Amino acid sequence: MKNLFKALADFQQEVPILHKDSAGYSYTYTDLPEILRTINPLLKKHGLGFTQPLNANELKTIVFHAESGESIESSVTIPEETMKGMNKYQSLGSGITYMRRYALSSLLGLVTDKDMDASTMEDKLSRIETLPELNNFYKGLDKKQQETFTKLFAKRKTELTQLLETA
Question: Which helix (H) or strand (E) holds 58?
Fold first, then answer.
């Protein structure tokens, strides 16, 4: 599993926070097409792939390392609920998409919502080791997050600059 975990860790260091203002009833989220647009090039770069087979009402998410064949997986049961204003097939389709989005985000360690506090951001920034990585990460934030965490980014930029000067 060493190859898979190294590639996954490298992927996680590079993938930006994903947030698009798709609106639900009283929340916002990143839709599945936006997640896929963002992660697919990075997965390829790190030799990773995924598949999400559906068997009855169980969705399995498998993330694999293409070269070694190592993989991790998780499964989730899709509830059989009929949502207001939808027939049972539309509700099932909505449930599948919802579970695909959250299962994939969970297995890959993606941040796909606005629930980020300063301690989470500080931890993520502490793992960034180069100025280009820091700049890419910053560009991946929405404008409000950039404004909220400006001081933390400035602090990390100073730390990285000092490390470069002493190296």
Answer: strand 58-65
**How do residues 43-96 score in pLDDT, each as one tens digit?**
999 999 999 999 988 999 999 999 999 999 999 999 888 888 889 889 888 889
Q: How far is CA 56 from its chain centroid? A: 26
Q: Phi and psi (nearest 5°) for 74?
A: -145, 160
Alpha carbons 84 and 90: distance in angstroms, whole number: 10
Q: What is the pLDDT of residues 68-81, one digit of tens each?
A: 999 999 999 998 88
Which neighbouring-strand residues pair with 59? 54, 76
Long-range contacts (CB closer than 8 Å, 24 or more residues apart) made by 149-154: 149/118, 149/121, 152/118, 152/121, 152/122, 152/125, 153/125
Domain layout of the chain by residue ranges: 2-108, 118-166
